[in-house]
Specification:
Helix content: 40-55%
Strand order of the largest sheet: 3-2-5
Shape: rod-shaped
CATH architecture of the domain at 64-169: 2-Layer Sandwich
Structural class: alpha+beta
Radius of gyration: 43 Å
Strand content: 25-35%
Largest sheet: 3 strands, antiparallel
Number of strands: 8
CATH superfamily of the domain at 64-169: Band 7 domain
Number of helices: 8
């Protein structure tokens, strides 16, 4: 049989081949409906589909990213904020993702938005800013639990931006500045107390040692001699002045 005759015999089969062969990629699963009823889930490879009687719905099982848009939320202490997040999930059960929910991607997105607003309302602003990871984990657990009937596994949830009102930003800046000033005053006062304590100990030591005060005076004179200033001020005890006065009176 010549090639032309063979091609003539096979052309009907080649014509219908694209309609009965379906390719399922490695990152996909095929949910097969036979006469409207679920029959099986195809793995990767080439599969034969019976036209008219069967239909295949491909489901991507790779990790997907849901960008949760800015949401208006009110914290537990009644502070309005805007917050957004990103959610990562994948399909674990293709059958449930097709049969249990109309559009699993849209459903997960809406569920994440609602859960995020509720989670923000359960914490104060300070807790939200200080414990973003804990709030994110709480949202993840809630969304993951609610999406289990859809065959969805939530990998992680990350809170991105927390936008505060402008007047609140100024208030927080003032509080931070006041806190820094308070710390500076405390440190300065602690230094003064320590210096006064050391000076008191030094004075007590000098008073107990005979001649120590004279040695300290000589040391001060030596320190002044290295100064370029020509003027020095001496503080003479009142007892010394009275002694000099009595000596001068006795001579007279």
């Amino acid at each position: 049989m010549n090639p032309l005759s063979l091609l003539f015999l096979l052309w009907p089969f080649l014509f219908v081949l694209p309609f009965i062969i379906r390719q399922i990629n490695q990152y996909e699963r095929g949910v097969v409906l036979t006469m409207g009823k679920f029959s099986t889930v195809w793995g990767p490879g080439w599969k034969i589909l019976i036209p008219i009687f069967q239909r295949v719905i491909k489901v991507d099982i790779r990790v997907k990213t849901v960008d949760v848009p800015d949401q208006e939320a009110i914290t537990k202490d009644n502070i309005p904020i805007r917050i957004n997040a990103v959610l990562y999930f994948k399909v674990l059960d293709a059958r449930k993702a097709v049969l249990e929910v109309e559009d699993f991607f849209y459903a997960v997105s809406q569920l994440a938005q609602t859960t995020m607003r509720n989670a923000v309302g359960e914490v104060t602003l300070d807790e939200l800013l200080a414990k973003k990871k804990e709030v994110s984990d709480r949202i993840k657990i809630t969304v993951d639990s609610a999406s289990d009937p859809w065959g969805i596994d939530v990998q992680s949830v990350e809170l991105k931006d927390i936008v505060l009102p402008e007047n609140l930003k100024r208030t927080i800046a003032k509080v931070a500045e006041a806190e820094r000033e308070k710390q500076a005053v405390i440190i300065n006062s602690e230094g003064e107390v320590l210096a006064a304590t050391n000076m008191a100990k030094a004075a007590e030591t000098l008073s107990k040692q005979e001649g120590a005060l004279h040695l300290r005076t000589l040391q001060s004179i030596n320190d002044l001699s290295s100064d370029q200033s020509n003027t020095t001020i001496w503080m003479v005890p009142i007892e010394a002045l009275k002694a000099l006065e009595s000596i001068s009176k006795s001579r007279l």
